[in-house]
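Report of the visiting student (M.T.), summer placement. My assignment was to run the structure pipeline on a short list of targets and document each run. The first record concerns Inositol-1-monophosphatase.
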Amino acid sequence: MGGSANLNIMMKAARKAGRSLAKDFREVENLQVSMKGAGDFVSRADLAAEAILKDELLGARPTYGWVAEEGGEIEGQDPTRRWIVDPLDGTTNFLHGLPHWAVSIALEHKGQIVAGVIYDAAKDELFFAEKGEGAFVNDARLRVSGRSAMIESIFATGLPFGGRADLPETLQDLARLLPACAGVRRWGSAALDMAYVAAGRYDGFWERRLNAWDMAAGVIIVKEAGGLIEPLTPGGDILSDGEVICANEAIFSKFSKVIRGA
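After the run finished, the structure tokens were exported:
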């Protein structure tokens, strides 16, 4: 499937960074790791992947802005466009040898996400979408699931770690949701959780206290796969609030009422 020049730049960059990470992943026991904070790690592999992405993306589009997990924010000469990048979403999985992590790249134009790429290098699955052009994984079209019964549906979320303050809220979510559904999964990568909603593998996803780079690519991939996506707080903003809920259209209303406690 052909895409725009920007999308092709994004896919090339994601694959190049993914190859670098996959090489380090095979030698995970030798990684040099430093502690950033409770439950939040950064490795040389992570920083190397971000350097690759910065070189590829800003090399191709030097006037665009940039915001990324490790490297902070760069204001571009073009104030309407910026790259939103997570070089390694699922760092803790990576460092524990769990093959569930991804490179995530989004392009924002005038405050809207217009293209997104999520690359799962361990499984060689490239999820991507552009505004108005649909969503894909490798060469296959993505569509959200068609399930409409909560009791048949599987949902995903992140669980607070390291004594985070939102643990009680998440436990309340689970207490309401678990009796009503077929299961809840916690796989440790918000980007892949959203890609899996787009692929129909999960029926819905919600999480709090995320960063823009965790979600940005997933936002457009879910939308272009036919899913509904909103901030957890009605009227809010997904990327700035760091809260999101998404699902297929058939289940969204029921799911959101459970999570929001309505």
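The longest strand covers residues 81-89. The mean pLDDT is 93. I thank the supervising group for their guidance throughout the placement.
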